[in-house]
């Protein structure tokens, strides 16, 4: 039988747990490098945005995350940059490979690549390749590889903190224990999402438009909702940062709009709740994905003991499942691949994806 998104979603817990067991495995010892540039596109850039704050806080580094094509052609390299990391699950996204080649030729900076394919062009291009450790994901709408990319980057941050003496061995162990708690909660998140989908299936499936709103570390999550819903459900879907939504996009809201609010602790939460209450006057279709508990039936509560920096690893899982289920309920035949010549035609990939 062909694997589906759900096949890989159900493998997420075991995969991440095995990565934890192998830690620090193939992670490089990065010492004395404080200004990192990360280049990635699609789900890979969303994954890095999701892990960025965790890594920055722990490893005391400054991370700039950029779209590689735009960066290569229009941005100016910060000469303080002392590490460049290209992230591509397939290792075959041309923009990431080309930007790394360009930087390697023009600047004396060490390059790393994070990929699940060590034989890929990205892996061959960089000075040091790091394995995402999932093997190949044979469904193009990536799920397991997405959370594994977040996780591996988090583990890289943790190991870097340790290598630079920023945390003790005991603190490193405590951090690994926190990550383990997060990983153990995945089956419960899957179950909760299944119940949520069954309840709201009809109105979600009938939606002409989806918007997700969040802030801080959740921005990676809402951006991945945008990517995953567009790839699978194939109706306009947008992830908008909370404050950005308040400066224009709110004019678009109408009674058909389905809106997801990502409710996480933080200073910005008051504004999120104000916005949610405001929009509830204009559409009935407001849903919340919340860290913690809730008795509200339109809230999908992720009851896991994680902080806001680890939360993006878990909060994306409901969106992965909803993307799959809503697409199937709409009658989109996901195993039937479409636009198979796209990547080569527009030169966004070095080769067609090897999908089931
Ligand atoms: O992580 P990669 O392999 O560079 O892929 C980036 C993006 O490109 C796609 O494969 C589409 O071309 C997306 O599914 C993916 O998110």
TrEMBL record:
InterPro entries: GlmS/AgaS_SIS, GlmS/FrlB_SIS, SIS_dom, SIS_dom_sf. It holds the Pfam family SIS. One of its GO terms (molecular function) is carbohydrate derivative binding. Residues 26-166 form the SIS domain. It comes from the Bacteria. Keywords: Aminotransferase, Repeat, Transferase. GO terms for biological process: fructose 6-phosphate metabolic process; protein N-linked glycosylation; UDP-N-acetylglucosamine metabolic process. This is Putative glucosamine-fructose-6-phosphate aminotransferase. It comes from Buttiauxella noackiae ATCC 51607. The lineage of its organism: Bacteria, Pseudomonadati, Pseudomonadota, Gammaproteobacteria, Enterobacterales.
